[in-house]
């Protein structure tokens, strides 16, 4: 079917469907750990009778036809998961109404805007409007700017982003993290005035068209075309064509217009619904044909004071106005019930989708989008002080939602029937039973919790200098594409599942966990999903973003005093242990530092994924250690496949691990700034016998690598990611043999924008920040 976006869309759709099928196969690959444990296994890990190496089929032996993966970070645009929202309950008129959301922050720059930016760049390069040597300039409220900056980093273009003062500090720092220059318009600048951020970008490109390329997302038809080519086909495929309503907000109008046109060309009866912040002109224009006077609203990246050229209002069937309080309250409800920490625009979209669902009399499949992630909005949407300053009282109660009580207890007879049908083992947890009994007929959807693992593997060899051998390749698992944006989801999900099955964690108990941040956020998220109260204890070194992220899920946070030793009763580790020790029937101590399940989680998950994705050709695995679970479990699995594979520990200078491996005893620890790695002692969950080598890197080397990664590959990870890659690069440069090195990007840089990607913080702590490129 032809459209205004081109006649070759069938080819695009077929290619997209093929890519999605491949991605789905990898994501759905799961290893079943629910099998009998083996007697006499090594004390640090109870291995099952049927090892993961047998459960998870190994690739064939190497042949000349076996090629290593060549995907780079930008190749993972689109193909985002579709999740069903099941914990947010309304009084639906029709129980057969279902609400789904596309997790668009699983795109490379963590937002939906990657779809349009990639298409704009591709079309502009193809027709010669964007050429090497030109500078890209883009006006953006935040997400498009970050995406433009990322794509420019990948493709080597200098970049200038203009934005409004309403843009969150996190989004501004995210833009700078990719090496772009940021220009912020003065407060109160009105659309059309020379000092408004949109006009600044337009005039800059207009004055020197040969030097500057204006992305101009608000008027170019490449904007809706990006969604028409990708997001529309994905929704049709993932719902098997059963979608009845599409709900999305508009700023440029690209999402609602591109997806709306694609859906209506294939299903004319699909209803396209615009979610609009109260104060935007879209609602009034839709109802009266006049713009009216725009009002103030605080949700970023949605709404407008005029109708952009990229928006086709004729495709819209209905408009839902949503207030700031309703949008932000829905964000809190999503985090505290579904475990989804998303941005304000996601809250706005979901609120409108649920309002629509509550009033549908016919069966309906309602789909919406979650455009960006919550960690980019922690200083605002999830910050009580900011909400109060702006006169907002936001909570889950404000949107009249409640937790779905879930699947009733399953009888022993029902469990046996499900087991006979091969749906679950007899001793499966109630959480697994609920999943097995759910049927998502006709939709390729999942629950948010099901997105743990099956993360992309990308080629990052380009960040190395002179390789020790020219055929060496360096790969990274993008572990911040897990639900809570960190690798720790693998371990937390595994540990809680096993504790539930064995009866150590029961309804009514409170989960308590000591964490430097990421495990705490993951525990808080999983407890929100499962209905457990949660207490997280942490150190004052934990970044402000991680602290706010933990609180966003509704967990209680307790911070230990500065400078206390880990053995001190006031330390965050001792605080957590004391609660569970004093009241074991009330508190379940997660205790990631001493449990064997920590390493088991990676043995069953990360290890098999790496072996499969590298076609069995991996020669070295590099990862930092705090609990030691990642390197222990992954290293053990890989060595069972090939004893020549090396497990390498990346260690920050100042941690005791390097000294322990040299002398057999722990030296006095020194101060280091990188979070989530290193330690003052050897945790019980760390099987040190797996490690072949330790590579020490300084704080500065880790920070430098973080910035190099984001400014060249587009992958923006946290400090531990920089440490891991710096160690992997060192190994690659020193080894004279051809190597296939795999490391992990543990968590996303958006959790460290106030530190690792903040020049002021770096300077205050004696670290050198990379210079901002002169792009003007």
TrEMBL record:
Statement: the UniProt record of this protein carries the keyword Oxidoreductase: no
Skewed-composition ranges (Polar residues): 1-13
Top-level enzyme category: lyase
Gene3D superfamilies (alphabetical): 3.40.50.1100
Cofactor(s) demanded: pyridoxal 5'-phosphate
GO biological process: cysteine metabolic process; serine family amino acid metabolic process; sulfur compound biosynthetic process
Domain Tryptophan synthase beta chain-like PALP, residue spans: 77-372, 450-747
Region (Disordered): 1-34
Protein name: cystathionine beta-synthase
Gene source species: Hondaea fermentalgiana
